[in-house]
């Protein structure tokens, strides 16, 4: 079987290494720096994983690695149908036949995209790391290359790098409007443009392909993304037999973005409508949707497993652009969109995130435990111009401080009066500034 694929593989290598490098928007993706590990580039469909692989290739080329030492190879090619894990040696053989001076002498980098279509790829990847002087990137459809699968299949030989839709900074960079100075140094006109860009981002989201589209085209595009995730990454992959229940679940979750969700209540509602579904099935569906990166759920921040289980989870879409697809009110919910955006900013920092219910009955949007051990309480509010609103948000943070003494307390707001009187220990951040990173430096 090897000889059947050899000419195609050789030609693909030649064509790739002769192709001009694409000009793409640089992404701010954190890469773990652990020698000897493969990097699995994961994330929701259409978030930009393939583009990110090309950017990593271009970066290494700019740093001095010759093109012959850099291999991008996509296995999503009908000419490779039937390729098995045992045939993958042909890729290595043909690469080093073309570039014999590289074998064992210099370190090259392989970017293997859509590798999950080849049965038995895991054994090949592990052996490649063990026997060749290669830096290895793996990526593919989230239906078959999820983080938990990579960890299992590669037996500890792979770490993950998550590619999400554009952040606010990346979206601005994409259209050539990324501020080149600290946002708090912008003139009035620049600040107004930044605030307008944030409002647009909250409504339209950050999927790269959706940038700049009119509302109808963007809606149809994003709807197609969701449909593919539900069909291929959840229903087909996990062999589920109740597609309508899954759609109802997604409608409930994304139609109430940033709201609380209880499997028990949803299950009771379905039963009242005569829909027979097991509660365990609903738990599995929610887990599958998170695995496919369509949404992220946040549990109560507590050391008590029982309290986490009996309290609702708060659910957020992977991208604010999806909210309009499921919100039947027809009105933009900028407050929940801002909360969703802040959550994803915290996740990009590597934070473990929960929400807080205080002894006084207040709720704080997020408790974030950062990798360096620092802890934040983060309250998100669209507009604190109203005195009563400001007092409520501050009181919630103060009440939560009793649970985490000494924690850093942040109030992130999009609209605020020129002067705000806050008690000691409460930091106020303009949302556009905080999202661009000035609060995290």
Structure explained in plain terms:
This protein has a five-stranded parallel β-sheet, with helices on both faces. It has a five-stranded mixed β-sheet with strand order 9-10-11-12-13. Helix 1 (2-18) crosses helix 3. The radius of gyration is 24 Å and the shape is globular. It contains 16 helices and 13 strands. The protein has two domains: 2-163, P-loop containing nucleotide triphosphate hydrolases (Rossmann fold, 3-Layer(aba) Sandwich), CATH 3.40.50; 183-440, no CATH class. The chain has 441 residues and is an alpha/beta fold.
List the helices and strands and how they pair.
Blueprint (H helix, E strand, L loop, with lengths): L1 H17 L19 E5 L6 H14 L7 E5 L14 H10 L9 E6 L7 H11 L2 E6 L7 H7 L4 E5 L5 H7 L13 H17 L10 H24 L4 H12 L5 E2 L1 H10 L6 H13 L3 E4 L6 H6 L2 E5 L5 H4 L7 H15 L3 E6 L5 E7 L5 E9 L3 H15 L6 E8 L10 E5 H5 L6
Parallel strand pairs: 1-4, 1-5, 2-3, 3-4, 11-12, 12-13
Antiparallel strand pairs: 6-8, 7-8, 9-10, 10-11
Question: Which structural traits does this protein have?
Answer:
441 residues, alpha/beta, Rossmann fold, 16 helices, 17% strand, nucleotide-binding, ATP-binding protein, ATP binding, P-loop_NTPase
């Amino acid at each position: 079987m090897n000889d059947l694929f050899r000419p195609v593989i050789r030609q693909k290598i030649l064509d790739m290494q002769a192709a001009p490098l694409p000009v793409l928007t640089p992404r701010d993706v954190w890469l773990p720096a652990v020698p000897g590990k493969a990097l699995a580039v994961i994330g929701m469909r259409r978030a930009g994983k393939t583009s990110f692989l090309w950017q990593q290739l271009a970066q290494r080329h700019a740093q001095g690695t010759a093109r012959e030492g850099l291999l991008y190879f996509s296995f999503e090619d009908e000419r490779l149908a039937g390729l098995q894990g045992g045939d993958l040696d042909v890729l290595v053989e043909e690469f080093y036949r073309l570039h014999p001076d590289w074998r064992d002498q210099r370190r090259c980098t392989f970017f293997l995209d859509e590798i999950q279509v080849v049965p038995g790829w895991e054994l090949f990847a592990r052996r490649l790391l063990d026997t060749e002087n290669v830096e290895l990137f793996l990526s593919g459809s989230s239906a078959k290359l999820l983080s938990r699968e990579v960890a299992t299949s590669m037996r500890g030989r792979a770490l993950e790098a998550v590619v999400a839709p554009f952040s606010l900074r990346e979206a601005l960079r994409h259209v050539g409007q990324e501020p080149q100075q600290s946002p708090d140094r912008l003139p009035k006109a620049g600040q107004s443009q930044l605030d307008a860009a944030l409002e647009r981002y909250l409504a339209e989201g950050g999927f790269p392909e959706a940038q700049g589209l009119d509302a109808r085209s963007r809606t149809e595009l994003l709807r197609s993304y969701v449909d593919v995730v539900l069909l291929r990454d959840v229903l087909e992959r996990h062999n589920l037999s109740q597609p309508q229940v899954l759609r109802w679940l997604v409608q409930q979750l994304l139609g109430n973005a940033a709201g609380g969700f209880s499997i028990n209540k949803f299950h009771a509602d379905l039963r009242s409508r005569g829909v027979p579904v097991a509660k365990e099935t609903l738990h599995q569906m929610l887990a599958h949707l998170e695995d496919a990166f369509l949404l992220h759920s946040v549990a109560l921040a507590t050391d008590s497993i029982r309290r986490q289980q009996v309290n609702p989870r708060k659910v957020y879409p992977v991208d604010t652009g999806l909210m309009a697809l499921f919100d039947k009110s027809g009105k933009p919910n900028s407050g929940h969109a801002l909360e969703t955006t802040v959550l994803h900013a915290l996740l990009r920092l590597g934070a473990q995130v929960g929400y807080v219910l205080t002894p006084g009955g207040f709720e704080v949007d997020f408790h974030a435990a950062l990798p360096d051990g620092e802890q934040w309480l983060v309250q998100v509010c669209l507009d604190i111009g109203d005195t009563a609103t400001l007092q409520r948000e501050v009181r919630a943070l103060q009440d939560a401080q009793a649970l985490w003494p000494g924690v850093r307390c942040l109030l992130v707001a999009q609209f605020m009066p020129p002067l705000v009187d806050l008690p000691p220990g409460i930091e106020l951040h303009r949302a556009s500034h905080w999202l661009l990173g000035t609060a995290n430096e």
